[in-house]
UniProtKB/TrEMBL annotation:
Cofactor field: [4Fe-4S] cluster; [2Fe-2S] cluster
Keywords: 2Fe-2S, 4Fe-4S, Biotin biosynthesis, Iron, Iron-sulfur, Metal-binding, S-adenosyl-L-methionine, Transferase
Residues at which [4Fe-4S] cluster binds: C80, C84, C87
Gene: bioB
InterPro entries for the chain: Aldolase_TIM, BATS_dom, Biotin_synth/BioAB, Biotin_synthase, Elp3/MiaA/NifB-like_rSAM, rSAM, rSAM_sf
Domain Radical SAM core intervals: 65-283
Protein name: Biotin synthase
Record-linked Gene3D superfamilies: Aldolase class I
Catalytic activity: (4R,5S)-dethiobiotin + (sulfur carrier)-SH + 2 reduced [2Fe-2S]-[ferredoxin] + 2 S-adenosyl-L-methionine = (sulfur carrier)-H + biotin + 2 5'-deoxyadenosine + 2 L-methionine + 2 oxidized [2Fe-2S]-[ferredoxin]
Amino acid sequence: MTVKSVALSLADLTDNDGVLAMTASQDKTIRNNWQREEVLALFNQPFNDLLFDAQVMHRRHFNPNQVQLSTLLSIKTGACPEDCKYCPQSARYDTGLEKEKLLEIEAVIEAAKVAKASGSSRFCMGAAWRSPHDRDIPKVAHMIREVKALGLETCMTLGMLSEEQSEKLASAGLDYYNHNLDTSKEFYGEVITTRTYQDRINTLANVRNSGMKVCAGGIVGMGEEQQDRAGLLMELANLPRHPESVPINMLVKVAGTPMADQADLDPFEFIRTIAIARLMMPKSYVRLSAGREDMNEQMQAMAFMAGANSIFYCEKLLTTPNPKANTDMQLFERLGISPEPFHVDKSNDEQEAELHQTLADVKTDSQFYRAG
């Protein structure tokens, strides 16, 4: 078969949005029984073959030229009792981060307005807690309701949740809850000792059982081996139901944390991880998350080719830098990528005017913090 005939065949199978047509009987790609040897075999594929397979899989389920935009706000910063070796929020490490109390609802609403006017469809709120106190749940539930009233999807990451807490957040209307596995079971003890891997699995189960959507991923570049990256993806893909959102974070090395001097991960290994996440969890949004500040445009473009279709779009990811929003839009334009559309009830001119007014009204420029 010639290159031209292959292109024609793909064109015949593709709809106007670039999504490959597929019957229900053809969609046998959703699995929850992956073995480590299978995942390692994917890691050992020739790079171009792996990216091609991931791109084909991506087109089966998503428009390949659209990326979902989320904004992340730290609603409570620092003084976390956990000992995660990568995290500047831990009270155990001197990173120069100033701790802050839970934000007032007015500050959260202002930040959400900016996010929406800037084009984000989902507003994520993170608090540096081991787990929320029951007394905090009404406050965060109020935040959820107010942000949803703006027409945004909502997501929170607050640490471990009980069944009752999960149900209360779901009742408030929370769409997504983020709780990362971080790494493989085998490497986990090298990263954190103050909560177990099973604690994280239990929280994900509580979130899923409450009816909320699951956002769960991990961090690469922490000194783990390839088999650990395979183990992380295997754990995520073998959950009873795949997470709807899978953030893949590159370690952000922060001075004062035990991982500040960790060696850099090979960029191609990061792209492989994105591609394999796409192949193993075909219908999940794969988010190019923390670490994007240190990725050049070519690496980000390759990540989109590998199947990443979600980014955090804001000044900072809780407490680590993120590329500026206008830089993202410039890259999107050059790549022919557009933000995934969501319902709006205003014209472009009205949205632009709203953005300028909101930015003028915001009283602080330090609302965005840590990586999630």
